[in-house]
Amino acid sequence: MKPDSVSVEERPAGARPSQQPEPRRQPRRLHFSAGLLAPAVVVMAILSVIPFITLIVMSFSRVRLLGGLRLEFAGLDNWARALTDIDLWTSWLLTAIFFVATVGLEMVLGIAIAFSLHKVIRGRSLLLSIILLPMFVAPVIVGLLGRYLTDPTFGLYAHVLQNLGIKEDILGNPTSAFIAVTLMDVWEWTPLVALIALAGFSSVNPSILEAAALDGAGQFKTLRHIVFPAISNVLLVALLIRSMDAVRYFDIITITTNGGPANATKIVPLRLFETAFRFFDLGYAAAIGLMMLIVTILIAQVFVRMLDKKGLTK
User: Fold this and answer.
1) Which residues are bridge partners to 62 per DSSP?
2) pLDDT tens string 168-197
């Protein structure tokens, strides 16, 4: 006989059936978690949201500093000025050239270095440590080092070029100065791409490579049809990281050329800094800063959509 049936038979007449125990309520963890997050959200709002709103307001205002901070509504004047400023568009063009040159060279050289390191069996860790050294140097130090090496009086690179018959000041010529600051960024951040690409190479299944070798696939075909499709997601992440950083390039150019000569290296971040803290035209600088933010978001969206198509954002 079942225990339930015994309890029903022994229940006295007129007695109310025993109530089923109510399910235990789940603790309100959501409210507790929200309470824990509240201080962080408030701090984030103070540090991020409020300055961002202030920046938007400034982009529609004339900022007066004499006699205290005052904002005078200027409508779309700053935005119209930014859209029609030839000098600013020249800086955008330099930024685009710099972006393509640095990111392109860093991706090509980084993949080549990673592929070469992947083939090395003995001493790979030592070689990797040496290759990664520039990545740990502060950009300001890289700029000072580049300035020292390209100095026309005692710089090593200037001395080599002079022996080759090229006696121009590297940082004094617009073209060579732009190439020099581009190569300084490539020198510093190519190791990061190499490190990420090396991780991708290491993740390729060796049995697939052995099968391709047994089938007679050459080195080029193996790379094109097996290795690169397998590590494309990793390379896309490396491309995203470097693209976000290249748009904000500032330190090395400031230390070496400060935008010169003849504005040849004055990309948008330097023009923004000059507008805000040299000419104190803060309203116009706010509009330039928001334009940079919009461009950065658009670039990020392109890469996020590419990652989303590959199912890497879920």
Assistant:
1) 72
2) 888 888 999 999 999 999 999 999 999 999
Query: pLDDT, tens digit, for every residue of 35-44?
Result: 788 888 888 8
Dist CA 214 CA 206 (whole Å): 12
Q: Residue 194: CB partners within 8 Å, gap ≥ 6?
A: 109, 110, 111, 113, 114, 117, 131
d(CA 248, CA 251): 9
**What pTM was computed for the model?**
0.80
Sign of the four-CA dihedral 234, 240, 243, 245 = negative
- SS3 letters for 138-149? CHHHHHHHHHHH
Q: What is the CA radius of gyration of the chain?
A: 30
How close are the terminal C-alpha atoms of the chain, in Å? Answer: 54
| Cα 288 from Cα 275, distance rounded (Å) | 9
DSSP class of residue 63 equals E
Please report where in the chains the tokens 């330190």 appear, as a residue. 251
CA dist 132 and 196 (Å) reads 11
